[in-house]
Design goal:
With 213 residues, the chain is mainly β. It has one domain (4-209): Sortase, Chain: A, CATH 2.40.260.10. Helix content is 7%, strand content 34%. It has helices at 4-13, 169-173, and strands spanning 63-68, 73-80, 99-102, 112-117, 141-146, 151-163, 179-191, 194-209. It has an eight-stranded mixed β-barrel with strand order 1-2-3-4-7-8-6-5. A hairpin with a 2-residue loop joins strand 7 and strand 8. The two termini are 26 Å apart. The relative contact order is 0.26.
Length: 213
């Protein structure tokens, strides 16, 4: 489960989370890619598909890889913490753009919401690793590879595009009683160097591969 202290830090930090998303280059074209209203959760966190027994949670192990077949993502994962000003770190703006895991959240497959961040654009380097995140739909698969050799597969339950000023901190970081995943990037129209919105993908654990014995 996420610790209350971690949620408090996240609440303060997310007011400016991914404010620039790398900025500088071309638009990633996320405007107009909002999912249908039926795919958006309401005021509570989205729920996993029913009708099947949930897989057992995994032991804690840092994520090292992320694969999202529906949008062509296959990326290493770096660790992210908090910057000196108290905001959530984002991956550096480089030509080998990677996703990052917020290390104050559970690791993928643990009980609780595991949070990964990525850029839409990376300055003069062009497209970011999460440039097509808003194109995901309910039922799409997300695969995470862990440092201990285990793997956790998640199924998308909802995709939301929200104004940054209205970021749903409780939905993203609030305690849940099962393993879930959150992917976050920028979206919506650009205003200067910044995007107006955040795109948030919610997913629930659907399968696991244990670490080698």
């Amino acid at each position: 489960m996420t610790r209350p202290a971690g949620r408090a830090l996240a609440a303060a930090a997310l007011a400016v989370l991914l404010a620039g998303c790398g900025g500088g280059a071309k638009s990633a074209g996320n405007a107009g890619n909002d999912v249908a209203a039926s795919d958006r959760p309401g005021t509570t966190a989205p729920q996993a598909p029913t009708g099947a027994e949930s897989p057992r949670p995994l032991e804690r192990s840092v994520p090292v890889g992320l694969r999202i077949p529906a949008v062509g993502v296959d990326t290493p994962v770096m660790r992210l913490g908090l910057a000196a000003d108290g905001t959530v770190q984002v991956p550096p703006v480089t030509d080998d753009d990677r996703a990052g895991w917020y290390r104050h959240s559970p690791t993928p497959g643990q009980v609780g919401p595991s949070v990964l961040l990525g850029h839409v654009t990376v300055g003069t380097h062009g497209d970011g690793v999460f440039r097509h995140l808003a194109r995901l739909h309910r039922g799409d698969r997300i695969e995470t590879r862990l440092e201990n050799g285990a793997a956790a597969e998640f199924t998308v339950t909802a995709v939301r595009t929200v104004r940054k000023a209205e970021f749903p901190t409780d939905d993203v970081y609030g305690d849940v009683n099962r393993p879930e995943l959150r992917l976050i990037t920028c979206g919506g129209p650009r205003v200067g160097e910044e995007y107006r919105d955040n795109v948030i993908v919610f997913a629930a654990l659907s399968a696991t591969r244990p670490a080698p014995s």
